[in-house]
Write a structure and sequence with these properties.
Elements (H helix, E strand, L loop, with lengths): L15 H15 L19 H13 L16 H12 L11 E4 L2 H7 L9 E5 L4 H9 L15 E4 L16 E4 L6 H9 L14 E6 L25 E6 H5 L7 E4 L5 E3 L5 E3 H12 L5 H8 L18
Parallel strand pairs: 2-3, 2-4, 4-5, 5-6
Antiparallel strand pairs: 1-7, 6-7, 8-9
Helix pairs in contact: 2-9, 3-9, 4-5
């Protein structure tokens, strides 16, 4: 019989959100009159906006005709969506991000786990505690940890407890690390965070090299002008950060699946030989090898997210329009 990946045996329980869902269903069945506030997975409750529905209806119609049918699309995403993202989410905020640095995917959850494919096993992984479980579980699956201790913590990870108050920035470990964080970050704090991350190609500071995985899935909820919507509002972030974004919370795409990851071309890594390597090229190779792209219909719907509200029309129930 085939040998399995023993790292999966280190996971002592099922994934958090399905387990929460199972318990909620059981409780609701036993307490049918209870009013339940669901605080598990961050699903949405409202339908897709009319402009998105209209765009997806049109895309479905296109798939019915030889002249406009789409099969496999570009793995990195269609230009029409990547251009819209680059212009509206980044360039309009003064961020130096181009369309060819954007990778369309079927979810930022997938990307935050899959990104580990291109990073070696000798990095120190720093996570805040508590933390989004994907950050921990995927590192366990990849063999970056030991067995969980009695507290459920994994040797090999650096856990960063948030200092009070929760809005304070976490203290990064002194060792080189790749660090997802979850603190509220004002622009000055984000700038200091980037300043602690030396360029990945540095030879003089290789022992203190850090990279940041910036998960901005909820950036649409930011209303405070002091908080950046993108880490790339800090110019130096191009050399130290990868940003993950999602249409799930922004536009209700949890059921239609569309997201994207930004990997700047100036971001460098280091091979065991000491050679500097373009991380953008590695992620392109991984993305094109293991992923066949998001459906054309979903990408047309995502493009419509950037439709001005005044130009939106009520969605029609007829697919022939």
């Amino acid at each position: 019989m085939p040998q399995i990946n023993d790292n999966y045996l280190k996971l002592k329980a099922g994934y958090l959100f399905p387990e929460i869902g199972r318990r909620v269903v059981a409780f609701a069945r036993e307490n049918p009159t209870a009013k339940i506030i669901r605080m598990g997975i961050g699903d949405v409750t409202e339908p897709l906006p009319p402009a998105i529905i209209e765009a997806m209806h049109k895309a479905v119609d296109e798939m019915a005709h030889r002249e406009t049918f789409r099969g496999y699309g570009p793995e990195q995403g269609y230009d029409f969506l990547r251009d819209a993202i680059a212009q509206n989410d980044f360039q309009s905020r003064g961020c130096d991000i181009s369309a060819d640095e954007i990778f369309i995917s079927d979810g930022s959850k997938c990307d935050t786990g899959n990104i580990l494919d291109i990073f070696g096993p000798n990095n120190t992984i720093a996570v805040t505690d508590p933390v989004y479980p994907v950050y921990v579980d995927t590192n366990v699956m990849a063999g970056h940890t030991g067995d969980a201790n009695e507290k459920g913590e994994y040797p090999g990870l650096v856990y960063i407890p948030p200092p009070p108050p929760i809005t304070s920035p976490p203290k990064f470990p002194r060792r080189k690390s790749t660090s997802p964080t979850s603190a509220r970050r004002t622009i000055p704090r984000a700038r200091r965070c980037c300043a602690t991350c030396s360029p990945n190609g540095s030879t003089t500071r290789a022992r203190t090299t850090r990279s940041s995985f910036f998960d901005a899935a909820y950036e649409a909820y930011i209303s405070d002008p002091a908080i950046p919507h993108s880490i790339y509002e800090i110019p130096s972030a191009r050399d130290v950060a990868i940003e993950f974004r999602s249409f799930s919370k922004l536009a209700g795409f949890t059921g239609t699946r569309c997201a994207f990851t930004v990997v700047p071309k100036s971001l460098k890594g280091r091979a065991q030989s000491g050679e500097q390597v373009d991380i953008h090229k590695l992620w392109t190779r991984r993305h094109t090898t293991k992923f066949n792209g998001v459906s054309y219909i979903s990408q047309r719907g995502a493009q419509a997210v950037y439709t001005p509200p005044a130009a939106s029309k009520p969605a029609t129930s007829s697919l022939s329009t």
